[in-house]
Amino acid sequence: MLFSQRYGYKPVNDIIQSESVNEELRARLWNVFQQCYLQERQFGFISCEYDNLLVSILGNFFKLPVDNTLSSNSYYRALKNQYSQCNWYEVYDFIEFVVRNLGDEYGSGSKTNQNFREMCNQILEDENSAYRFVDDHVTKIISEIEIEAVEQAISQGKYDVVSMHLDQALTLLADKKEPDYRNSIKESISAIESLCKIIIGENKATLGQALKKIEEKYQLHPALREAFSKMYGYTSDKDGIRHALLETGDNPCYEDALYMLVTCSAFTNYLIEKSR
User: Fold this and answer.
1) 95 and 33 Cβ atoms separated by less than 8 Å
2) In this predicted model, what pLDDT tens digit does every residue of 51-73 receive, in sequence order?
3) Which of 116, 154, 124 is nearest to 142 (CA)?
4) Across residues 86-101, what is the average pLDDT?
């Protein structure tokens, strides 16, 4: 991660797209829309259903007056232009409108809608969007509060080693070409381990030992101490993240790594405040 991101000058929001849609994500969602609903363009034969679909989006979604004398190409150009210029949140409105209104009405059927949702979700994951399709609704899977927790934890200047672990966890999670969820989880929990050792001043202590001392000295709730001890155990046992998972086939996914990053970031901020 760049200096500007690590120290909060370029926020995590630019990496996990929460209140923005970059050009890559906008373009890829448009390409999937074309692939699923505008296949007739590639064959050169334009049906009335195709024209009606474009008119429906222009008139009912973008709320534009539609001139029935225009050609299909004119409709298409107008639609693409509106989509390219709309606000980031209208991109999500658009794909939600498509799924809710176009599939059955224009003969493409529920299978097309299902394929569209699945392809959109894969792209949203690839591009680190904070949103996914859940049924026919575009739903936020990570909140601004959670993103702020990650940003705050990464920018804790006094604890560089902790920031480095969380920085690497985010980098591995957000890698578009080869995301490494297993090692992202490892880095997230390693941030907690490093911080606890710093707080008690014992570099060779285990996480369990360190949390026990923090519990006694700083009134850490026993349930929190036990929860993170168990979470560390999950990442450390013979079938866990820190060992080969080929035998069990238990490979973590994006949601697992994101949960660990957010949880460990929030706990990092909590422990730092407690220890002060």
Assistant:
1) yes
2) 788 888 999 999 998 876 677 78
3) 124
4) 93
